[in-house]
Design a protein that fits this description.
D-Maltodextrin-Binding Protein, domain 2; 10 strands; 8-stranded mixed β-sheet; two-stranded parallel ribbon; 41% helix; alpha/beta; globular; 2 domains; single chain; 291 residues
C-alpha cells in the first residue's frame, strides 16, 4: 500500500513539474499583435541590402511588431522618387541633398539621422593612375589625366550623386571611353570595375561584403568629403492617403530604438572584424561633418 501511495505521489509530482509549479500551465511566449494594416513598403538604397544589414534588421522588426516589410532596393534617387509619388511608406537613403528637397516639397516627413559610414575609391592593386593615399579630388584629376578606366554607377543613386559632386568640385566633366557608366547597383558596379581593371566609388559596407569576390583595393579613404550619412523618412500620409503611416513610423522608430541602434552598431564585426556602419541615432549631424 505504501509502495502504491509513493508511486501515485511520484506521478503527481512529475505532472506538476511538466505543467508548472502548483499545477498552473506555463505561459506561452507572447506574440506581437497583428497590425490592422501589416504591409509596409520600404524603398531603400542597394547598400543596405547588399551589405546584409536589412537581413538582420527586418526579421527582428517583424517579429517584434507583427508588420511585414516589402523591400525595394534601388538607388537612393529612385527610392526618393518612389516617395515623391507615394509608392512607398518609408525611405532609408543616403543622398542628403535629394532628401532635403523631398522633405521641403512635402512628400516626406520626419527625416532622422540613423547611421553613417564612408565612401571609398577603390581600384586595381597596381594602381596605374597612382592615386593611393591622395584626396578624392586629386584622385579624380589623376583618372581624367591618365584616362584610366573609371566605372560609375550611373544610376542617380546616393553613391552616384556623391561621385558627380566630386567631379564638379574637381572642375571636370568626365567623358570618353575611359569613363563608363554601369547603370547598376553597387555590388554589380564593383564586379564590373574589377573585371575591367578599373576604379570606382563605393560605400565601405558593400565593398567589404563583396571584397572576397573582386580584385579591388582601397586606395582613397578618410577624406571628409567621403562621409556617407543615412537618414530614414516617412512618406507623408497627409499627401498620400494610401500610405501606411503607422507601419512607416513603427519601422523608423525601430531603427532609432536602443535595440535597432545596437544591431547597427555591431553589424559586421564578427565577419569583417569591423562594423560596417556607425549608429548615430540622437546625434547632432553637424558633428559628423554633414550639412
Amino acid at each position: 500500500m505504501k509502495r502504491l501511495l509513493f508511486s501515485m505521489l511520484t506521478v503527481l509530482l512529475i505532472l506538476a513539474l511538466l505543467t508548472g509549479c502548483g499545477g498552473q500551465k506555463a505561459e506561452a511566449p507572447k506574440q506581437a499583435a497583428k497590425p490592422a494594416n501589416p504591409d509596409v513598403i520600404l524603398a531603400t538604397t542597394t547598400s543596405t541590402q547588399d551589405s546584409g544589414l536589412l537581413d538582420v534588421l527586418i526579421p527582428a522588426f517583424e517579429k517584434k511588431t507583427g508588420y511585414k516589410i516589402k523591400t525595394i532596393a534601388v538607388g537612393s534617387g529612385q527610392a526618393i522618387a518612389m516617395g515623391e509619388k507615394g509608392e512607398a511608406d518609408v525611405l532609408l537613403t543616403h543622398a542628403p541633398d535629394a532628401e532635403k528637397k523631398v522633405v521641403d516639397g512635402g512628400a516626406a516627413v520626419n527625416r532622422r539621422l540613423v547611421m553613417h559610414n564612408d565612401f571609398l575609391i577603390v581600384g586595381p592593386a597596381a594602381d596605374p593612375a597612382k592615386v593611393k593615399g591622395k584626396k578624392a579630388k586629386e584622385a579624380l584629376e589623376a583618372f581624367a589625366k591618365a584616362q584610366t578606366v573609371f566605372v560609375s554607377r550611373g544610376d542617380n543613386s546616393g553613391t552616384h550623386q556623391l561621385e558627380k559632386k566630386l567631379w564638379t568640385q574637381a572642375g571636370i566633366k568626365p567623358a570618353g571611353a575611359w569613363y563608363q557608366e554601369a547603370g547598376a547597383g553597387m555590388g554589380q558596379t564593383l564586379k564590373i570595375a574589377s573585371e575591367k581593371n578599373g576604379y570606382t566609388v563605393t560605400d565601405r559596407a558593400t565593398y567589404l561584403a563583396h571584397k572576397k569576390n573582386i580584385a579591388l583595393d582601397i586606395l582613397v579613404e578618410g577624406d571628409p568629403v567621403l562621409l556617407n550619412i543615412y537618414h530614414v523618412m516617412e512618406v507623408n500620409p497627409a499627401k498620400f492617403a494610401k500610405v501606411n503611416k503607422d507601419g512607416a513610423k513603427a519601422f523608423a522608430d525601430f531603427l532609432l530604438s536602443a535595440e535597432g541602434q545596437e544591431m547597427i552598431k555591431v553589424f559586421g564585426q564578427d565577419k569583417y572584424g569591423q562594423p560596417l556602419f556607425f549608429a548615430d541615432g540622437g546625434k547632432d549631424e553637424k558633428a559628423l561633418g554633414g550639412k
